Amino acid sequence: MALSAAPSVLFDNHGRPLEYLRLAVTDRCNLRCFYCMPEEGIKYLPKQELLTYEEMERLVALMAGLGVRKVRLTGGEPFVRRDLVPFMDRLSQLPGIEELTLTTNGVLTAPHVPELARIGVKAVNLSLDTLDRARFAAITRRDELPQVLATLYALLAAGIRVKINAVVMDGQNTQDLLPLAELTRELPVDVRFIEEMPFNGGSHEATPATLPWNHHRIREHLALNLGELTPVPTRPGDTASHYTVAGHQGRLGIIAAYSRTFCGTCNRIRLTAEGGLKTCLYDQGVLDIRALLRGGSSDEQVAEALKSAFRHRAANGFEAESQRPLHQLSFESMSTIGG
């Protein structure tokens, strides 16, 4: 990563520092996970509506000057977009950026692992909801589990930290929680279980209180079957509650994504592939940055627009959700949001 003087810290209107950018490089994906999008897929954005790498690089440089220190590339699936690694290499050299990571489904990732290690990527989030090949094919509508596992072991061999993200879905993969958790016994990985969210391309009638597998039930299930879960101290901005288990090399994590228990210290902002700024996962987008860039705005004007958006950030995901049209949230695909 680039070495530089530490950038100034920018705070939102609730006193939370904004240090972490989740940057979606594409809305396209090579899987069709049923909780993310319909089987036929979604209507993808025309190429000209996506931010170019040059536009994204300009924005990351601007945000680094405002205090962003960590950038995570998301999608869709990032490796569906061509020339991703050279773009990541350029981002890693921007002054102020101290950490560059990505979230991937692992299908196309393994051949790029040596280059990721070379440019200094220290951690990768790997989406993996089951270790059962038939259930993997049913959930993702693609038979790609061997490729994902090859990526997992290639990352570990390269010394890159791996966080496995598994969405917990009632009636779909709850039998997979323990096999996934058992990976931590022999491997130095974090396995993190995520409450299912309504970004599934369809309706989602549960509330955080009635969600069949909320963070409380997930923890109870793991503890009942694995033994005592010892909490790991959390840091401001952490979304996961982490635990160690005696005799395990890795750690377990639980992310209360739908219950939204971590909003009070959230330090994340999101940029969608078409340049929409989201200061909360649950908002409808608060600023069209692409319009500013292509309308000729100077760096100073873009920076002022960003700071203005940060000064009007929702206190939490529930407030952000309440400000959206009632019909909109449950029909949005996670691949258009940026993870």
From TrEMBL:
Residues given in the record as [4Fe-4S] cluster 2 binding sites: 263, 266, 280
InterPro entries noted in UniProt: Aldolase_TIM, Elp3/MiaA/NifB-like_rSAM, MoaA, MoaA-like, MoaA_NifB_PqqE_Fe-S-bd_CS, MoaA_twitch, MoCo_biosynth_MoaA/MoaC, rSAM
Binding site for [4Fe-4S] cluster 1: 29, 33, 36
Keywords on record: 4Fe-4S, GTP-binding, Iron, Iron-sulfur, Lyase, Metal-binding, Molybdenum cofactor biosynthesis, Nucleotide-binding, S-adenosyl-L-methionine
Keyword NAD: no
Superkingdom of the organism of origin: Bacteria
Cited CDD domains: Radical_SAM, Twitch_MoaA
Cofactor: [4Fe-4S] cluster
Keyword Hydrolase: no
Binding, S-adenosyl-L-methionine: 35, 76, 127, 197
Catalysis: reaction(s): GTP + AH2 + S-adenosyl-L-methionine = (8S)-3',8-cyclo-7,8-dihydroguanosine 5'-triphosphate + 5'-deoxyadenosine + L-methionine + A + H(+)
Family matches, as Pfam families: Mob_synth_C (PF06463), Radical_SAM (PF04055)
Cofactor binding description: Binds 2 [4Fe-4S] clusters. Binds 1 [4Fe-4S] cluster coordinated with 3 cysteines and an exchangeable S-adenosyl-L-methionine and 1 [4Fe-4S] cluster coordinated with 3 cysteines and the GTP-derived substrate.
GO BP: Mo-molybdopterin cofactor biosynthetic process
UniProt cross-references to PROSITE patterns, sorted A to Z: MOAA_NIFB_PQQE, RADICAL_SAM
Pathway the protein contributes to: Cofactor biosynthesis; molybdopterin biosynthesis
Annotated positions binding GTP: 22, 72, 103, 163, 268-270
Residue ranges of domain Radical SAM core in the record: 13-233
Gene Ontology MF, one: cyclic pyranopterin monophosphate synthase activity
EC numbers, comma separated: 4.1.99.22
Family label: Belongs to the radical SAM superfamily. MoaA family.
Quaternary structure, from the entry: Monomer and homodimer.
PANTHER family, per database record: MOLYBDENUM COFACTOR BIOSYNTHESIS PROTEIN 1 (PTHR22960:SF0), MOLYBDOPTERIN COFACTOR SYNTHESIS PROTEIN A (PTHR22960)
Function summary: Catalyzes the cyclization of GTP to (8S)-3',8-cyclo-7,8-dihydroguanosine 5'-triphosphate.
UniProt protein name: GTP 3',8-cyclase
